[in-house]
């Protein structure tokens, strides 16, 4: 039975979050917590693969207790099972410590619940923005990381391979990988439809499996949380708003027309100033 685990994170909605101008840190209370948008596409892709091949879709998160809400959102999308690791010892984790803790939880799921064939992550989170956690997990589990995936052509559990498209700047490449492997998915891989009523009802009542550090086997506590995080944030600042300039509005085509008008007007001014003559 194909077992897909989507790693998901609850994040503040960065479209509306405010910065504290005194401390230059995010005022997390100024924005609601939502499921990382990239991760909703990861879960949706797992659900679509289950529809094609059968199997089970699990979701896993590391976060504070309110992150249960993000797991419920994934159950609404169609996930079967939810797992959460939460503990004060995880607090202050950078991407290295985050990928370590998530790997330990994935090992527990694989050994005690059911083996894992495929892990799907979002391309990145909208708060941390690094895109490092997925490849970090793959490296620790010694499985191939397939990043920037925007189409899954085939997952063949029997023969142990997957074929995907990886988005490139000027097109895409087709990659065949052995299973198990890890995908980091782009937003354009799918559209997440509105949740069905049965899924919403199931989500409202759903209680995920919640584990603390003491539930994870053979764990090196020095690799967790702030203690296990070599990243040092030396300073944080909000970028200055650019002065002057003009913000182009409308559809891309209308913006290009506006930009051309501005450039042509400047060219005329320049030519008039320089005595004209150039064509
Ligand atoms: C010194 C330091 C201290 C920090 N302290 C905290 C803190 O106390 N609390 C805090 O929330 N953040 C903290 N952070 C931020 C934290 O490191 C990152 O949010 C976290 O490691 C994930 O990195 P990212 O957001 O860049 O994820 P990315 O690497 O961009 O995420 C890629 C994908 O990995 C998966 N993923 C990422 N994070 C998780 C997760 N937690 N659970 C499941 N899947 C996940 C998702 O699929 C996601 O789409 C700290 C960072 C630093 C540098």
Description:
Helices cover 30% and strands 24% of the residues. It has 279 residues and is an alpha/beta fold. It has a single domain (2-228), classed as HUPs (Rossmann fold, 3-Layer(aba) Sandwich), CATH 3.40.50. The strands form three sheets. The chain has a nine-stranded mixed β-sheet, sandwiched between helices. Helix 2 (68-77) runs antiparallel to helix 5 and helix 3 (95-113) crosses helix 4. The structure holds flavin-adenine dinucleotide. Flavin-adenine dinucleotide (FAD) is lined by residues 7-9, 36, 38-39, 42, 60-63, 91-95, 98, 102, 121-122, 124-125, 127-134, 229, 231, 233.
Reconstruct the topology from this structure:
Elements: E1 3-7, E2 10-12, E3 18-19, E4 26-27, E5 33-35, H1 37-53, E6 56-62, H2 68-77, E7 81-85, H3 95-113, E8 118-122, H4 133-140, E9 145-156, E10 161-168, E11 171-178, E12 181-185, H5 197-205, E13 209-211, H6 252-273
Parallel strand pairs: 1-6, 1-8, 6-7, 7-13, 8-12, 9-12
Antiparallel strand pairs: 2-5, 3-4, 9-10, 10-11
Helix pairs in contact: 2-5, 3-4
GO molecular function: electron transfer activity
Protein name: Electron transfer flavoprotein small subunit
Pfam family, one: ETF
């Amino acid at each position: 039975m194909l077992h897909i685990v989507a790693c998901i994170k609850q994040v503040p909605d960065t479209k509306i979050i405010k910065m504290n101008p005194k401390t230059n840190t995010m005022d997390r209370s100024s924005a609601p917590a939502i499921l990382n948008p990239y991760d909703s596409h990861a879960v949706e892709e797992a659900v679509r693969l289950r529809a094609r091949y059968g199997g089970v879709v699990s979701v896993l998160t590391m976060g504070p207790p309110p992150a249960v809400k993000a797991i419920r959102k994934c159950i609404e999308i169609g996930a079967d099972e939810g797992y959460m690791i939460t503990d004060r010892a995880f607090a202050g984790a950078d991407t290295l410590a985050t990928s370590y803790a998530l790997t330990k939880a994935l090992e527990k799921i694989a050994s005690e619940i059911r083996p894992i064939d495929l892990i799907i992550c979002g391309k990145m989170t909208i708060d941390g923005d690094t895109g490092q956690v997925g490849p970090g997990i793959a490296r620790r589990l010694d499985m191939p990381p397939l990043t920037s995936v925007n189409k899954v052509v085939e997952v063949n559990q029997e023969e142990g391979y997957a074929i995907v498209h990886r988005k490139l700047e000027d097109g895409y490449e087709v990659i065949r990988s052995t299973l198990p492997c890890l995908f980091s998915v782009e937003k354009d891989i799918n559209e997440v439809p509105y949740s069905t009523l049965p899924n919403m009802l199931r989500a409202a009542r759903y209680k995920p499996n919640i584990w603390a550090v003491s539930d994870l086997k053979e764990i090196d506590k020095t690799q967790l949380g702030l203690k296990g995080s070599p990243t040092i944030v030396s300073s944080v600042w909000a970028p200055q708003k650019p002065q002057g300039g003009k913000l182009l509005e409308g559809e891309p085509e209308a913006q290009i027309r506006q930009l051309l008008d501005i450039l042509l007007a400047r060219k005329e001014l320049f030519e008039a100033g320089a005595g004209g003559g150039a064509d």
